[in-house]
Amino acid sequence: MGKSSSDAMRAADVSPSSGAFELERREPGWARPIFDPRDGDAEDDVSSPKQKSLLAIAGSLLAEISLTKLLLAWIASIVLPAAILGLAPLIVTAWVGGVFSRALELYGFGAALLLLVIVAAGWFGWRPLFRVAEANFWALNALGVQPGYALCREAIRHLAERSLKPRGGTELARMRATSCAGAGILLALVAALVAAFVWPHTRWIGSTADLAVPHHLIVPTLANAIVVMSAYLAAASLVWGFADATMDQPLDLDAFDAAPSDARVWRVAHLSDIHIVGERYGFRIESGRGGPRGNERVKRVLARLEAEHAARPLDLILITGDMTDAGRSGEWAEFFDILAGHPELAGRMLVLPGNHDVNVVDRANPARLDLPFSPAKTLRKMRALSAMAAFDADRLRVMNAGAAEPGLTLAATLAPQRQAIETFADQGGLRLSNQLARVWDELFPLILPPAEDAGLGVAILNSNADTNFSFTNALGMIPVGQASRLTAAFDAYPEARWIVGLHHHLIEYPMPVAAFSERIGTALINGSWFQRVLKPYSERVVVMHGHRHVDWIGACGKLKIVSAPSPVMAPDSKPTHFYVHALAQGADGRLALMTPTRIDLAAAETGAGG
Ligand SMILES: [Fe+2]
After folding, report:
1. Residue-wise pLDDT tens digits, 114-135
2. Which of 150, 394, 585, 607 has the lowest tally of Cβ within 10 angstroms?
3. Which residues are CB-neighbours of 378 under 8 A, at least 6 positions away?
4. pLDDT tens-digit series, residues 378-418
5. How far apart (Å, rounded) are the C-alpha atoms in residues 306 and 369?
6. What is the DSSP letter of 165?
7. Helix (H, G, I), strand (E, B) or coil at 558
8. Number of other residues whose CB lies within 10 A of the CB of residue 137
9. What's residue 251's pLDDT?
C-alpha cells in the first residue's frame, strides 16, 4: 500500500509536459489507487440495515452510546414526567387536607368566607397542575404506551402471518383483524397484572407532614405513575385492539376509476424518498454501497419529469419527504442546485418533511442521540422549514387551532419569525430553539386551498415522531391537534377534494411477511387511529405517502392510499420508476383516481455502478 501510493504521488507530481516524465511514462492504469474510492468502502455501510443485520447495528450502538446523554434523556423524558404524574394526587390531597383542617379551627361566617376564598384559589391553582400532569401523561403515552401496543400488535401479526401463511388479501385481512383483538386482550391482561402488583406501594393521599420527609414520597410517586399508566394501558389497549380489529383492513385497489368525460383532471407527479446526498460520490445511510452513488439518479428523475411536463403539463409535483439523506445543509444545497435547472418543475412543487430530513441525528453513528431539548434537532427542522418556504409559501395556508378555516399564508406566518430563524441558523442557542420548535409544531397541516369550491386542495402533514435517537429516527406519529386542524380544513371546503400528503404509511400493506424491523420501526404509531379520523372524508380524499420505498396503491374501505416507490433508492444496476397520477372530480363529490402513468428509469449507464 505504502509503495503503491508513493508511486502514485510521484506520478501525479510530475507535469505531463516535463521531459523527465516522458522517460518514465507507464501504462495509464498504473497511477490508480489499490481500490477505487469512488466505490466507497465499509464505512459507507456502517448504519445501513440493508447491508448489516439489526443485531450488528444494535451491537455497535451499545458500544458507542453516550451514557451521560442517555441518562439525561431518560430523566427528561421518562423519570420527570412520571414523577409529576405520580406526585399530582399527593400534592392535591395534601392541599385539600390543609384547607379543611384550617377551616375546622374557625367558626361561622369567617370560616365560610375563608373556605370560599381558598377553594377559588385552589380552583385556579389546580388547573395549571392538572394541565402539567395531563401533558406529562400524554408524553408518556406517546413515548411508551402507544408504541408498546403497536409493538405487541405487530409482533402477533408477524408471528401469525409467518406460521399460518395466509393466501390472498382477504384471508390476510381477516387474520390481521383477529391479531389486533388478540394483542388488545393480551396487553390489557399484562397491564392489569402490573397494576395489581404495584398497587400495594401506591399512596394517593398526601399531607403537609410529607414536606418534612420528601424522600418518603419517592416510592409512592413512582408506584402511582406506574399504576396510572398501566390502568390506562389496560383500558386503552382493549379499545385500540377492538377498534383496529373492526376497522377496514387495507386491500390492493380493485380497479382505478374511469375517466369522467367532462370533469376537471389534475396531473400529479408523486415523488418520494430521493435522499439527496451532499457528496458527489456519497452513498445513502440506509442502502450503503448497495444503493445509488451521488445524485445522478435524482437528476435523471427530474429530466424525465421535465419531458413529461413538456408533453402534458403537470399541475403538481408532490415530494412526500426524505428529500435529503440526513437533513444536512450540504444536502439541501445540492437539492436546490439540482432544482435550479428545472424552474418550471420547482414552481409546481410541494415538499413535506420526512424522518431523514428532521430526525437523523448522525449519518454515520446510530448511537448518537440528541437531548430532548437539543437545539440540533430544531436546526434540522428549521433547515426543512426554510426549504419548504421556497415552495408556494404565498399560497399555502396555516390552520390555527380552533379556527374554522385556514388563516394566514405560510409566508405571512413566517414573516415575523424570519429574523429569528436566520439568527438561530447562524448562532443556535436554547432560547430561539424553544421558540422556533413551537412555531414548527403549530405549523402543520399546511393547506393549499382548492382553486374553486369543488376543486382539489392539498394538505401537507408532518408525521415525524419527535425522536432524539438516530436508531429510532424512522418512527411516525400524527399529533391529535394536527388531525383536528386537518378535519377542520376539510369541513371549511365541503365540496372540495383533497390530497393528504404525509411521509409515513398509515398501516402495514397486505403483503405477507415484511421484515419485523420494518413493521415496527417505521410505521405510524397511531396510523389506524388516523385512518379512522379520515374515514368520514374517505370518498373525497387520496392519501399520498412515501417512507417505505414500496410501490403500492390500495384502499382501506373507501379511503384510497398511494405509496410512492423511491425512484432513487435502488442499486445503480437496477431500474426504478415513479408515477404521474391523474385525479378528477368524480360524481357526487368524490375524488376519482385514474390509472397512473408509470415512468421507468433504466439502470445507470456503465461506470456509474456502486
Ligand atoms: Fe423515510
Report:
1. 667 767 776 776 677 666 666 6
2. 607
3. 424, 432, 433, 434, 436, 437, 440
4. 999 999 999 999 998 999 999 998 889 999 999 999 999 99
5. 40
6. -
7. coil
8. 20
9. 85
Cα-based torsion angle of the residue sequence 214, 218, 221, 222 in order, rounded to the nearest 10 degrees = 170
Say if residues 404 and 488 touch (Cβ distance below 8 Å): yes
> 331 phi and psi, to 5 degrees?
-75, -45
- Helix (H) or strand (E) holding 460, with range, is strand 456-460
Strand 349-351, strand 316-319: pairing: parallel
Ligand 1 centre and the CA of 206: distance in Å? 47
Please give the distance, rounded to the nearest whole angstrom, from the Cα atom of residue 412 to the centre of ligand 1: 29
- Residue type at position 251: L
Tell me what pLDDT residue 189 has: 93
What residue type is 606 in one-letter code? Answer: T
- CA dist 245 and 178 (Å) reads 6
Half-sphere exposure for 246 (CA within 13 Å, toward CB): 5
Q: Ligand 1 center to residue 384 CA distance, Å?
A: 14
How much distance in Å is there from the Cα of 354 to the middle of ligand 1? 5
CA distances from 497 to 358, 405, 581 (A): 29, 16, 15
CA-based nearest residue to 141, from 577, 607, 601, 526:
526
What is the 441 CA–ligand 1 centroid distance (Å)? 19
| DSSP secondary structure string for all residues of 501-513 | E-SS-SS--S-S-
Where would I find the H helices in 106-167?
108-140, 146-164
- Name the residue among 400, 402, 403, 437 with its Cα closest to residue 417: 437
Q: Ligand 1: distance of its center to the CA of 472 in Å?
A: 12
User: Which residues of the chain carry a pLDDT beneath 50?
Assistant: 1-20, 606-610
- Give the orientation angle of helix 418-427 with respect to helix 430-441, to 10 degrees: 130
Q: Is 292 helix (H, G, I), strand (E, B) or coil?
A: strand
How close is the Cα of 196 to the center of ligand 1, in Å?
A: 40
Instruction: State the chain's maximal CA–CA distance in angstroms.
Output: 116
- Report the separation in Å between the CA atom of 357 and the middle of ligand 1, taken as the mean of its atom positions: 8
**Residue 392 falls in which region: left (phi positive, over 0), alpha (psi -120 to 50) or beta:** left
Asked if residues 407 and 364 have their Cβ atoms less than 8 Å apart, the reply is no
Rounded distance from Cα 152 to ligand 1 centre (Å): 22
Q: How far apart are CA 444 and CA 384, in angstroms?
A: 13
456 close to 350: Cβ distance less than 8 angstroms: no
* Contact (CB, 8 A) for 594 and 259: yes
Pairwise CA distance, residues 218 & 226, whole Å: 12
